[in-house]
Amino acid sequence: IAAQKLLTEGTVQRVLILDCDMHYGDGTDGILERLGLARSITNATFGRWFHQPSQASAYLQRLREVVAGFDAFDLVLYQAGADVHVNDPLGGVLTTDQIIERDQIVFEGASASDTPIAWNLAGGYQEPLRKVLDIHDNTMRACAAVHFSERQSWEADKSAKAQPVSQDSAAAINGRGGQGSDRQTGPMEPSRNMDM
């Protein structure tokens, strides 16, 4: 529904639904086909291809391949399923560490390609519920790690650009020494201090 609305508004032209829930998203495929949206919306549903722990390496490799194509899309809608965990009664492909790796691959790929991403938490049927919530917490941590890293870098760049330029610094930028300065002149490097 979100992808169709954005397409109708002209906000996006190509959307990727990255479905990393355990179960095949055949309902999504059916809707895309019925509404004639399959040319504008791609549904990469990992439940179609992977079903058991012996496929974990292939799963993560295929994910890297899909993520490498993020720049072909205006938006990624990421379904971060917890039921893909090996201990889930309805799942069984990835370990906790592999799910963390999955999420890192996705969020880092979106960042590297500058592709907007929206994600939702899905699936997860382990007992007690805390086990499912831990998986979802890890997804949030992976997202936050990428987001806050980008934000710190952006704020450092913004801070460096906002620093007032002294007469000596301006003279050095222009290739002249400042008054009374015996410093070498040349281009200045912006400060990259990221202490916050």
**Termini separation:** 40 Å
Chain-averaged pLDDT? 83
State the total count of DSSP E strands. 4
Give the radius of gyration: 23 Å
Instruction: Characterize the overall form.
Output: globular
User: Proportion of β residues?
Assistant: 5-15%
- State the low-pLDDT regions, or none: 168-196
How many helical elements?
A: 6
Query: What topology, given as strand order, has the largest sheet?
Result: 2-1-3-4
Largest sheet, strands/sense/barrel: 4 strands, parallel
Structural class, judged by helices and strands?
A: alpha/beta
Name the helix and strand elements from N-terminus to C-terminus, one letter apiece. Answer: HEHEHEHEHH
Helix content: 40-55%
Task: Give structural attributes.
196 residues, alpha/beta, four-stranded parallel sheet, disordered C terminus
